[in-house]
């Protein structure tokens, strides 16, 4: 059984991928800017070859909306080619080819770099993690009202389920672009906002605010959703209940308190 390296292995997704792979008996290396002994900043690549020595598969979870993903991917691909890595698994986002957001464009460019690399590769696109939706709503709730973009829905997915899928892909042969993975429900942002307010015991009017721009139009059109691939099970209410310790789903909206199921899909 060859060694598997996880980039961003201390992050929101990467740490769960590491845990799952180790639970399955794999030898796992964690690479991040501060993890010892493989502290590597992929944007400059210093120390990368040593971290990749003897590695058969890389799961590339490291990413940042602040920029640098394409340069980091180029360094990682070059290092993987030099050291004989046979399989590169990449986590991407549903809609990177449909929503003209700068970060999405970068993720799409990385997908294309990997496809052209000559390495064996697998790419999984998922919808946003529950954690990301929560951070967005927490930021919005700092105001006297809770504003959300008008006409936008989301399909949040449980990060541990994504980690399970990535671990399974890493233990398998390269598969190219695999089917997308989305959460169990497509929910409007006001509905998700009200679930958050119930779970935290916060009182705020929820206000839908129209925005401008091509990216906003892409989100309104549902370019980031994959209702035909609603294979996730954990709902937003269940995530909130674990986080805040309240029975968040008892007075919820569509699907509140349910476990979800096939039919509806972060970074």
TrEMBL record:
<protein>
    <submittedName>
        <fullName>SDR family oxidoreductase</fullName>
    </submittedName>
</protein>
<feature type="region of interest" description="Disordered">
    <location>
        <begin position="248"/>
        <end position="267"/>
    </location>
</feature>
<feature type="domain" description="NAD(P)-binding">
    <location>
        <begin position="8"/>
        <end position="131"/>
    </location>
</feature>
<dbReference type="InterPro" id="IPR051604">
    <property type="entry name" value="Ergot_Alk_Oxidoreductase"/>
</dbReference>
<dbReference type="InterPro" id="IPR016040">
    <property type="entry name" value="NAD(P)-bd_dom"/>
</dbReference>
<feature type="compositionally biased region" description="Gly residues">
    <location>
        <begin position="250"/>
        <end position="267"/>
    </location>
</feature>
<dbReference type="InterPro" id="IPR036291">
    <property type="entry name" value="NAD(P)-bd_dom_sf"/>
</dbReference>
<dbReference type="Pfam" id="PF13460">
    <property type="entry name" value="NAD_binding_10"/>
</dbReference>
